[in-house]
Amino acid sequence: MKTRITETPLPNLLIVDIEYFQDERGFFMESWNKRDFAASGIDANFVQDSHSASRYGVLRGLHYQDMRAPMGKLVRCTVGRILDVAVDLRERSPTFGKSFSIELTDKNKSLLWVPEGFAHGFATMSDYCEVQYKQTDFYNPEFEGGIAWNDPDVGIAWPYTDPILSKKDQNLKSFQEYRRNPAFR
Q1: For the whole prediction, is pTM greater than 0.90?
Q2: pLDDT digit string, tens, across residues 114-145
Q3: How far apart are CA 157 and CA 167, in angstroms?
Q4: Of 39, 103, 130, 148, which has the maximum CB count within 10 A?
Q5: Which residues does the annotation mark as catalytic?
Q6: CB 134 within 8 A of CB 74
Q7: DSSP 150-177
Q8: Are 103 and 12 in contact (CB under 8 A)?
Q9: What is each CA distance from 146 to 6, 17, 38, 60, 89, in whole angstroms?
Q10: Which one, of 123, 44, 35, lies nearest residue 77 by Cα?
Q11: What's the DSSP call for residue 147?
Q12: Strand ranges, E, within the chain
């Protein structure tokens, strides 16, 4: 199967579209093929898969794991639709503090490669959604951090202004606080 990689304005953050086959029975696609992805520039060693379900209005993020356990993610929406967002937290990057958003859906079947050094989050845009992602390191809450979803310095255009948030996501730091002690130099 063919894998098409599209670069985003943020270095190393990539949109992945995979050729799939569809007929009257449904569809088939290889959502991960190490050889094909490596040939396309994503040579990741995944150690964990995660799967979440959310209802409309839920916003998850913006999360990262710091350099003690940095994590890259290959994200896809398998049911419904989401606004998927990544923020460049690499202090030396020319796009430090900039964000990128893309709509991932069960229809477009696009994936987003979120490399180490980025915060990641998403907002549910359908009545119900399921998001699956492969991770390059194990989840470790000791090394986890986050940026407030509505930080004006990051300026993300979310689909709503009063999302449903976890207690943890209600208390994430501002981008200015992050700048004082960046996790990715």
Answers
A1: yes
A2: 999 999 999 999 999 999 999 999 999 999 99
A3: 22
A4: 148
A5: 63, 133
A6: yes
A7: T-TTT----S-SS-B--HHHHTPBPHHH
A8: no
A9: 26, 28, 29, 11, 10
A10: 123
A11: B
A12: 3-7, 14-18, 21-23, 26-28, 48-55, 59-65, 73-79, 81-88, 99-105, 111-114, 118-124, 128-135, 144-146
105-117 average pLDDT score: 97
> What domain count does the chain have?
1
CATH of the domain at 22: 2.60.120.10
Amino acid letter, residue 34: K
SS3 96: coil
Asked whether the predicted pLDDT for residue 1 surpasses 90, the reply is: no
Q: Is residue 151 part of a domain?
A: yes
- Note whether 143 and 66 are within 8 A (CB): yes
Query: Does some domain include residue 122?
Result: yes
